Amino acid sequence: MKRLALALCVFALILASSVPSSAQFQMNFVLPLQGDSIIFDQVFRYIKDNYIYNFDLKKCRYELLKNLSPLAAAAAKDEKKTPCLDRHSAFHTPDEVKAMKEEQTGHFGGIGAEIEMKDKEVAVRRPMEGGPAERAGLKAGDVIIKVRDEKDAEWTWPKDTTEAVKKIRGPVGTAVFIVIKLPSAEIEFRIFREDIKMKFVESKVFGDIGYAHYKSFTETSADQLEDNFRALRQRGINKVILDLRNDPGGLLPGALETLFYFSKKDGDIMLTTRYKKHEIVDTIGNSKGKYVDPKTNAPKNPGEFADMKVVVLVNGRSASASEITSGTLQDWGYTIIGENTYKKGVGQTVFPLADGSGLRLTTFEFLTGNGKRKVNDVGIKPDIEVKWEKRPGQKDEEFMKEYADSFGDPAKDPQLQKALEVIGKM
What we know:
With 426 residues, this protein is an alpha+beta fold. The protein has helices at residues 38-50, 57-66, 70-75, 94-105, 132-136, 161-168, 221-234, 252-260, 321-331, 396-406, 414-424; strands spanning 7-15, 25-29, 90-92, 107-110, 113-118, 121-127, 143-149, 175-181, 186-192, 194-197, 201-206, 209-214, 239-243, 249-250, 269-275, 279-283, 309-314, 335-338, 346-352, 358-368, 373-374, 384-385. A hairpin with a 2-residue loop joins strand 5 and strand 6.
């Protein structure tokens, strides 16, 4: 391997460990390294310099070598006995790093369709309205049995959504072939990829009350939230339910910019971030000039929506950036409704490695609002608790279907119903 000096792009991320993502870039430099051991040298250097927990480097090296044996790896299932990293830290392949970057930017070359696992098969959850998948004829519920890029001679039978997404996405303007399974036949589609811009915030109106569902925090999500709130205000709506349920988190800057919209007080603390050797306190005052309008490039003013009446919905899958947002808003006096959040109060930095892979490493803990409240292993407790659980004797599959069908429906969603009741009295 040639001698090289690796310029590192380090990006902080705040998310549930099950949903990898990425965040803003910061350039650092390391000394030139050489040989096949470069990746291992980089990994252990990053851990030693940045990992916030106590770490026994020697034990971790030995553990890594022991786990070269499948038998040893199978025996080491107890996380508490592992001398290496916490459950939020992980190694990512080059393909996984690429996917994370696509998620953070909010656009990619694709066909515009959400997919999911359904009965152990890859299925279309929802085609994007007006997107290439919908125009081609793909429908919700279609089962994808095989995929082929235009340059490939062989088909791929995706075993999960990760493999399917990897094959379906590609350069804008190129074609992908998709075969779906029907009860009595198979149908092949040829779909040309387009630049797909993901929607991370979607809003609607219930009478005189607005509703904004925040799905994930990305580079563009705060701008999307701003657009949705402005559109609601233009319709004369001054009461909005901000739904952070099932939002796994995402980018730290996305959460901070979102909070910037809801206070005009310079001294209000949005977040305290504690790293291994230093601490950063982000306030409304010291964040002025940091966020700009993507259309005009003009600096945004704080507290644009501070005059609106807002309540926030959370549940056990509201994690990290969602907990930052809900916890700080609660500290500022906003009402939180739902269930206790995920309890993830630490964030990760993704360190790029020499071959394009990446190390996601827990490098900081965050505290919310003026009260600097701890989130890790605690979560955000709602002001008004409304549980949404299985009925006695109800099967998991039945409950999940009922939940999916009822989510966001004011006639069926008990947490949304409570939020409507509370904000209606404001």
